[in-house]
């Protein structure tokens, strides 16, 4: 299933994405309640996807990010982030950084370089801690697409990553949650990023230094993960700057496509 969060006016709800028989028109079929809180039931309401506004598919209590998880990305960023480490590199983005598909990403006036970082994201299904790798699939609700937008100059000058990664709008997530992938399938998906239609990143999740079970086990060894928390799995090589007006599009095979335009805040 593909589960989206949407709004129509002031009304916010969840729905399942489906297509017509020709495969050209997408619809959202509304469900009752919250998909993470129980059995999914259709309400009978259905609308064309273009008649709705898609939102970030979850509102996580925290976004847990894995840095330096592709060897080629480690090599291109070694002057800022250093070399590969034996254990995963973990950092957090605040919930206030989360934004949805099609929403603007605001270029901070104090930064001279803002970068895109396309990633596969994991959505957590239930409260969990100290999860053994062999049980990681039990705590995964599904997968979505994320862009770990980064003020690269601030990341470098601060010597740590909180400010450079944490601006409002610096964590686009969407367009929905894909629940139909096995853990094995999620371990070999193509991840690409384009800027204004030009391909900038092209990698596969099979290139992870630390795979999804290892990451979930490591993170849950020191913090409790809650339903709806989002885990960003790392970005492949090819990260680079965007300008005001640039449109960033991150695509993850079999999951979806996430586009956001960079603007200045009025």
UniProtKB/TrEMBL annotation:
<keyword id="KW-0456">Lyase</keyword>
<dbReference type="InterPro" id="IPR011234">
    <property type="entry name" value="Fumarylacetoacetase-like_C"/>
</dbReference>
<feature type="domain" description="Rv2993c-like N-terminal">
    <location>
        <begin position="1"/>
        <end position="57"/>
    </location>
</feature>
<dbReference type="GO" id="GO:0046872">
    <property type="term" value="F:metal ion binding"/>
</dbReference>
<dbReference type="GO" id="GO:0019752">
    <property type="term" value="P:carboxylic acid metabolic process"/>
</dbReference>
<feature type="domain" description="Fumarylacetoacetase-like C-terminal">
    <location>
        <begin position="62"/>
        <end position="262"/>
    </location>
</feature>
<dbReference type="Pfam" id="PF10370">
    <property type="entry name" value="Rv2993c-like_N"/>
</dbReference>
<dbReference type="GO" id="GO:0016853">
    <property type="term" value="F:isomerase activity"/>
</dbReference>
<keyword id="KW-0479">Metal-binding</keyword>
<dbReference type="Pfam" id="PF01557">
    <property type="entry name" value="FAA_hydrolase"/>
</dbReference>
<dbReference type="InterPro" id="IPR036663">
    <property type="entry name" value="Fumarylacetoacetase_C_sf"/>
</dbReference>
<dbReference type="GO" id="GO:0018773">
    <property type="term" value="F:acetylpyruvate hydrolase activity"/>
</dbReference>
<dbReference type="InterPro" id="IPR018833">
    <property type="entry name" value="Rv2993c-like_N"/>
</dbReference>
<dbReference type="GO" id="GO:0050385">
    <property type="term" value="F:ureidoglycolate lyase activity"/>
</dbReference>
<protein>
    <submittedName>
        <fullName>Ureidoglycolate lyase</fullName>
        <ecNumber>4.3.2.3</ecNumber>
    </submittedName>
</protein>
């Amino acid at each position: 299933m593909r589960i989206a969060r949407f709004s129509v006016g002031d009304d916010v709800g969840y729905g399942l994405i489906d297509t017509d028989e020709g495969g050209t028109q997408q619809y959202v079929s509304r469900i009752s309640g919250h998909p993470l809180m129980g059995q999914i039931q259709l309400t009978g309401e259905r609308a064309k996807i273009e008649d709705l506004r898609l939102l970030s598919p979850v509102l996580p209590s925290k976004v847990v990010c894995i840095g330096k998880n592709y060897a080629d990305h480690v090599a291109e960023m070694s002057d800022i982030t250093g070399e590969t480490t034996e254990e995963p590199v973990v950092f957090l983005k605040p919930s206030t950084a989360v934004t949805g598909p099609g929403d603007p990403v605001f270029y901070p006036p104090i930064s001279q370089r803002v970068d895109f970082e396309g990633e596969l994201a994991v959505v957590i299904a239930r409260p969990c801690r100290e999860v053994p790798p062999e049980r990681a699939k039990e705590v995964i609700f599904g997968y979505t697409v994320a862009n770990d937008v980064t003020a690269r100059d601030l990341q470098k000058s601060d010597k740590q990553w909180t400010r450079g990664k944490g601006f409002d709008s610096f964590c686009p997530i969407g367009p929905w949650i894909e629940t139909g992938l096995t853990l094995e399938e999620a371990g070999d998906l193509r991840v690409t990023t384009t800027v204004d239609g030009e391909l900038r990143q092209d990698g596969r999740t099979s290139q992870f230094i630390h795979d999804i079970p290892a990451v979930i086990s490591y993170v849950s060894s020191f913090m409790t993960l809650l339903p709806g928390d989002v885990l960003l799995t790392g970005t492949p090589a090819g990260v680079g700057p965007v300008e005001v007006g640039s449109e960033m599009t991150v695509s993850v095979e079999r999951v979806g496509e996430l586009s956001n335009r960079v603007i200045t805040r009025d």
